[in-house]
Design goal:
Largest sheet: 12 strands, antiparallel
Helix content: under 10%
Radius of gyration: 34 Å
Number of helices: 5
Distance between the termini: 100 Å
Oligomer: single chain
């Protein structure tokens, strides 16, 4: 005789969440009773826990059922009414181990009763600066003594074990912080200094340090072992969950020096929009540190005028159907530099004396734009479409540079006799008396350089999984980049020997034309099969194509008739 067995799936895990019926606030510690209809018999009891989805804390409920049918999910918590949510599971599939309930379970708040005034009491307590909750390190912002008007950077500098470096780099106990968040959301991470220098410290409730899964696992809510990133999450006080903040600074000084700044931020639980502008002509791109150090080695030389403005945005729909964030930056700067050097060359055959001057002018313009769009569709289809994304970007940079330099080396110390207009006298093709009698050599150089750089592209992708088996996921990504750059360099160079008529001068009139453009794109299709909690198999196929065209032409114009020394063709 032969024996045959038929096995069906007898247990499935249900994943869901619990939110406030009116505010949709994610609630933790809610008691959840699972009742089976029609007799309302108790199946199991669990509590809602804190989890992270798309980088923000969310309520998480998980329980098991053993057969399809109609259920009631009863939610209860202090300060709330006992609320019943219907749940229907029509069937259990053989390979289905997890069912994700997309609509959250709700719980209603109790109506407010009459208030009772208590007698006055005095409570005295010490504030703990930091503590550990599970895997999260939490700093209490109110426990730190800060000067009035302090910004977020001053608070972070006082936190034990935390180091804030130039450019907004943050280290916690020696480990680099990958992302800086506000209320669990990426906002100013691409320009941390904007947030560090302009977010008032009094708005901060606490700062949490923890690890989170990589972006793919967070967005798709995938099981398995994910890559971890270290984040600093700045949590704002409840009263600052909606509102405006703004600050400005302006000043003027002698020699027409000026500085002006403006920053404004509008924020809600689901959106952040900021605007900023800055202009000055005092080479200012930083401010002194907490201990008064100005870091002068970081300051630019010469006289620099800076104008920059931009905005950042982060918008997330209330029920998390989509997320949009990005920024736009516009920058223009002018720099003037002048260097003059007197030197003595000590030689065995007699000392020589050199005087040189270099004057440079440059201006730069930059426009950059980066965006990220993520959409979470809710589709009834044979597949579970997790999310679609697009990350377009655009950048344009342009710079103009001009340089004028002159130097002369003399056999005697006659530099002091050149007078105030000595630069003009050295650059004059008709050498004067001092040059003809004492100048061993003279170098005159003029150059003009124009650069243009354009770049744009985007990442596109879709991520989905098997509808009844969350351990099998699939993705399709595409990437496109285009680049176009041009550079034009004009150069006049003269080396002559005013006091030595037998020496032949060296004159060069050069034009350098450099162009580079190209594109590349790639398409990647792949899948992830989660074998167990710790291991997975990830096959993928990638197709890539690129094209680049580069051309450089160097013209020696002095070889053309009418373009040699002492001709009148202007630079450029």
């Amino acid at each position: 005789s032969l024996l045959g067995y038929s096995q069906k799936n007898t247990s499935v895990t249900i994943n869901g969440s619990v939110v406030d019926n009116f505010t949709h606030e994610q609630l933790f510690g809610v008691k959840v009773d699972i009742l089976l209809l029609p007799d309302s018999s108790l199946v199991t009891t669990v509590k809602s826990q804190q989890n992270y989805l798309n980088g923000r804390p969310v309520s998480f409920v998980q329980f098991n059922i053993h057969k399809p049918g109609s259920y009631l999910v009863c939610c209860s918590r202090e300060g709330y009414e006992k609320t019943y949510n219907p749940l229907t599971i029509k069937r259990l599939y053989k390979h289905e181990t997890v069912i994700q309930i997309k609509e959250p379970f709700v719980i209603k708040k109790l109506r407010r009763k009459n208030e009772v005034n208590l007698n006055e009491v005095v409570v005295t307590a010490t504030k703990v600066k930091f503590y550990i909750n599970g895997d999260t390190l939490i700093y209490n912002a109110d426990a730190f003594n800060l000067a009035e008007g302090s910004m977020l950077d001053a608070l972070i500098r006082q936190m034990p074990g935390v180091q804030l470096k130039d450019g907004g780099q943050i280290f916690v106990n020696g480990r680099y912080v990958n992302s800086l968040l506000i209320n669990g959301k990426d906002f100013f991470n691409n320009d941390r200094k904007l947030m560090l220098d302009n977010l008032p410290s009094y708005m901060v409730k606490n700062i949490k340090i923890y690890e989170r899964d990589d972006e793919i696992h967070r967005l798709a809510n995938l099981p398995g072992n994910a890559q971890k990133e270290y984040v600093m999450d700045v949590r704002l006080k409840r009263e600052y969950s909606i509102g405006w903040i703004a600050n400005s600074e302006a000043g003027s000084g002698t020699d027409d020096r000026y500085i002006a700044r403006l920053f404004a931020l509008r924020f809600t639980p689901n959106s952040r929009i900021s605007l900023f502008a800055n202009t000055n002509n005092v080479n200012d791109d930083s401010k002194p540190g907490q201990n008064g150090d100005w870091s002068p080695e970081r300051l630019s030389t010469g006289l620099t005028k800076t104008y920059n403005a931009g905005f950042d945005y982060n918008v997330q729909q209330r029920d998390n159907r989509y997320q949009h964030n990005g920024n736009v930056r516009v920058t223009y700067s002018e720099n003037q530099n002048e260097n003059q050097v007197n030197s003595v060359n000590f030689l065995t055959g007699g000392n020589t004396f050199t005087r040189s001057s270099e004057i440079s002018n440059s201006d730069k313009f930059s426009l950059t734009s980066n965006h990220k769009l993520i959409f979470f569709p809710k589709l009834k289809a044979p597949i579970d479409l997790k999310f679609l994304f697009a990350n377009p970007y655009f950048s344009y940079n342009r710079s103009h540079n001009q340089l004028q330099s002159a130097s002369a080396t003399f056999s005697d110390d006659v530099i002091s006799h050149l007078g105030k207009a000595w630069v003009d006298s050295i650059m004059d093709p008709n050498a004067g008396y001092l040059l003809r009698n004492y100048a061993i050599n003279r170098v005159i150089n003029q150059s003009k350089n124009n650069d243009y750089h354009l770049k744009f592209g985007s990442d596109l992708g879709v991520f989905f999984s098997s509808l009844h088996d969350n351990t099998k996921s699939f993705y399709l990504n595409g990437k496109f980049n285009y680049i176009d750059s041009k550079s034009y360099l004009y150069d006049h160079y003269l080396l002559d020997y005013p006091s030595q008529k037998e020496m032949v001068s060296d004159y060069r009139n050069r034009y350098d034309d450099n162009k580079d453009r190209g594109y590349d794109y790639s398409i990647v299709a792949g899948a992830t099969f989660q074998l167990d909690k710790y291991s997975s198999v990830e096959p993928s196929y990638r197709y890539t194509k690129g094209y680049n065209e580069s051309n450089r032409s160097l013209y020696l114009l002095q070889k053309l008739n009418g373009w040699g020394e002492n001709t009148l063709h202007p630079l450029g």
